[in-house]
Amino acid sequence: MDTPNQRLTADETKGLRTAKELEGHLIWLDTFTSAALGILAIASGIYTYLGVSSLLEDNGAMSFFAAVAYSIAVSVGIFVFWSYMMRLLPSMRSAAGLIGLTVSTCVGSLAIVAMSSWLNAAALAGSAAVEQHLDMTVRDYQAALEQAHDIALSGQALGREVQRAREAFEALADQEKSGNLSGTAGEGAVFRVLTQKTEELRNLEGQIQEQQPLIEEAFEVGNAILGRMRGLTVAAGAVEQRSVAFSEESVRLAGVIANLNQYSVAQLVARAAEDLPSSVVLPDLDGRSATVRNAQSSTISSVLNALDQRSKTLKRAADEVLAITPPQETAYNPISAADAVIRYAGSFVPSWAGAIAIDLLPAILVFVLAITQSAIRNGRDGLSIEETLTLSDLKAAINAMRDVEASMGAADTAIQRRGALVSETINEPTNEKSET
């Protein structure tokens, strides 16, 4: 009769050997798995403590104990959760149980990320994230400063349009003075109208020129403040202290940008252009004859038409400047390390990966164990207990049987002795009666 081992096929023998080999590996790995899981949980708790500390404004004893309590709770939760999963999920044989525990693993992983991983990321890259927030704020302020400066310079460019109009009316006044415009030389009614508008344009041109040094000075001051803000972004020391100085500089820079917006003369030129044809004070015609007065009236009408055309030209130029989008109002908002890490998460992918990995690395071990246990079951499925016994298992079974037989033999001996004693006790009275 064939023994059980002789009935095994080659594939069954190979699967059985693989299963036993994997079981041996799992026994060895199980000796330090709990310790490794505990170290990971403690490390995550430490970084969680650092992250929580950055969120708490108060540095007193209560805040310290609150941060410690939260970090301990996170460490215990991570250790217990992954210990459950490592034991239960690989042992599941039914599809329903496997799916249920897999879903539980995913939900638990999300909970761990929500309560721990983002705080770990804040501890790993919180200072760098706040510095990036400062750098982004500097860029916003720089863009606003340059845009306000460009708008102010565009307004200054209107001075050339005003100068052209003034020079045109000055030329007309010279022609009228020499008699080449209305036909009558001298400084009569037409000449006075032309000089009136020339003076208005000259005054407007002077106001525009007065703004130029103010614009340049404000731009230089703004650039100086930006330089100090950039220095604070990369300076040594605690980022919280640098943020306070950065906030003070940002307030100054916001005032400079507001001043630059006010230095733009586009609105002034637009109002002057509207008033240019309507603010003419017509003098009395002083011609000696009706013919001369008619010529003066006709010339003044032409001058008014020219004023209207010049005013429309200036108005269009001023409206083009006013149509430029003003700089977006920029303000520095202090931000915590945890919030900065979330806002600029894309810039700190390695830190986020490390923060999440330290919490979710046991998930890989869970699935490795599940795959290994499945391979062990596949190697043993379809085989009876006798077929899966190894030589060491047989030796252990024989030793166990010997121990059982020895125990049973000792029990039989004790029973026999007890029976003999009972028999002697019963027979003693009978013997005494016989002697009598």
Coarse structural class = mainly alpha
Low-confidence stretches: 1-6
| SSE run | HHHHHHHHHHH
* Number of individual domains: 2
Tell me, rounded to a whole number, the average pLDDT.
77
Q: Count the E strands.
A: 0
CATH topology of the largest domain, by name, is: Ferritin
Determine Rg (CA atoms, Å).
49 Å
Give a brief description.
With 436 residues, this protein is mainly α.
Keyphrases for this structure?
436 residues; mainly alpha; Ferritin; 2 domains; disordered N terminus
Explain how this protein is built:
- This is DUF4407 domain-containing protein.
- The chain crosses the membrane at residues 26-50, 62-84, 96-119, 352-371.
- It is a single chain.
- With 436 residues, this protein is mainly α.
- The protein has two domains: 5-91 and 349-388, no CATH class; 128-337, Ferritin, CATH 1.20.1260.
- It is 83% helix and 0% strand.
- The chain has helices at 10-55, 61-88, 95-178, 189-234, 239-263, 266-275, 290-322, 337-343, 349-380, 385-388, 391-435.
- The chain is rod-shaped and about 175 Å long.
- The two termini are 69 Å apart.
- Residues 1-6 have low confidence and may be disordered.
Please describe the topology of this protein.
Elements lengths: L9 H46 L5 H28 L6 H84 L10 H46 L4 H25 L2 H10 L14 H33 L14 H7 L5 H32 L4 H4 L2 H45 L1
Helix pairs in contact: 1-2, 1-3, 1-9, 2-3, 2-9, 3-4, 3-5, 3-7, 3-8, 3-9, 4-5, 4-7, 6-7
